[in-house]
Amino acid sequence: MAQQVLTQFTDHEMSWARADRILSDSNSLQSKFIALQILEKLIQTKWKILDEEPRNGIKNFSLNLIVELASSEESLRQNRVFLSKLNLVLVQILKQDWPQKWPDFIPDIVATSRTNLALCENNMAILKLLSEEVFDFSAEQMTQAKAKALKTQMCGEFSSIYSLCMEILQKAVQPSLILATLETLLRFLSWIPFGFIFEMDLINNLCTRFLQPPITRNVTIKCLTEIGSLECGNEYQEQLVNMFTMAVGGLHEILGDLGNVSEEWDEYDDDQQEFIQNVAIFLTSFLGSHLRLVETSASRASVIQAHQYVLRISQVDERELFKVCLEYWNVLVRGMYEDSRTSSFNAPSGLLNLGSNAGANGASMSADLRRQMYSGILTGVRYVMISRMARPEEVLIVENDEGEIVREFIKETDTITLYKAERECLIYLTHLDPKDMENIMVEKLNRQMDGSEWSWSNLNKLCWAIGSISGSMSEDQERRVLVIIIKDLLSLCELKRGKDNKAVVASNIMYVVGQYPRFLKAHWKFLKTVANKLFEFMHELHEGVRDMACDTFVTIAQKCRRHFIAHQPGEASPFVDEIIANAESITSDLMPQQVNRFCEA
Q: What is the pLDDT of residues 431-451, one digit of tens each?
């Protein structure tokens, strides 16, 4: 019944006429919010048809109420939530009346900000809301002409707002006011004229005064991220390089070398974790846009330090954070790979050297220098990619939340997308230094064999990484590496006891061999050994292993079909005849659907 009465009141076309009494006299915060909702709806839908007197009355009442509630720091704290909604109502009025019917709004808000610190803090919140409504959400709420007019007006009057913000940042000591001002500036940075950013002291203030204190460091790094993402052409390159150098230096004072971030991550509070996430976004965004600039203009130490931070953060067990770093690593390694291809293509040959030696060698040296400069970083990235490798969709054996090995029935789209991005990165990393990739993978497999790093998860990720780089090594290197890897995996399968251990090793053997048809086609004996091993796996007790054995056999049969039906040297008959003859015993432990899958091959 009460809800029905409330609905009738809010839907009444004259309910707005009672809003001022409710806001002035009611002690119920919920009632006040209902009154503000009524006013907001009125402003959005009927403002233009109201007479001037009620419009001015609503505007003046809202202004007076804001001034009253934000007149002291204590009142501001007590009424913060209510004020946020009231500020939004005022901004809705501004979108209707400013600047034609309220031309003095910006001068008035700047002037009142200088009279009262608490009011100044709330005024910053109003300016931030106005910026968001005009520049971020205008496409959905107003016509293009109206939005353009408001943007033009905002830019035209911004100098007084900027002066106020700089005055606060230079003189204020109240942390909440400084924070509110920085948050407001953050909303401005995407649209204000570049001169305010690069030709004033804003960047220097951000890097030297506000990056260090814990209360302002998060919003400050967001401001630097926004500045770094601006498309400002070549005019302000020197300022961007200086900002990068100061920011990396400031981060080093705060974070040190960030060596234990992955181990200490869970001990960080929310603000510390947010700061690390914001640092990752700043560095990856800035380097993604301006890497060539800082490589040539900033110190090598700063560039390497920035990459070290991204590498350390990549090791944190937080998927969304890792995806931010992964996106940058793909940009870096793709660019380096394309550089190496271009320099190789342009390198002078002995037959066609038409006097272009210097330019070609310069390009080649540039690619070589970059590879040398980042060699240590890229080695670290290889280790990280292997240790964070996502599961490919071909793998059907998974570890559930209880630590049990089970058959997977639902494919996770996010995991598949992540795997594809990691595979792309690993392929480029392999092309850039195949020997380093080989050494890392063999080293990590040896640690599985000696038990020092043995775990289902570590073995899975290593084998998924090995399978992902199929075709990116030379054929000779691929043959050498695969012989070592598959022999070790087969030995591991014999060494390990227990159904789950064998299931994990077996699934990894099947995944790896299924990814390297080129190798299997070139080595018939190995192909036959792999096929016979798959037939053994079809008798395993674990249903997921049998499923995956059938799927892998179909994959190999499709990619190497001619080798199965051809008469191979040293064989009495084609291998397919032997399979058909033994089909009944091979499939004796399979379920009907698994037998059907086997027969597809």
A: 999 999 999 999 999 999 998
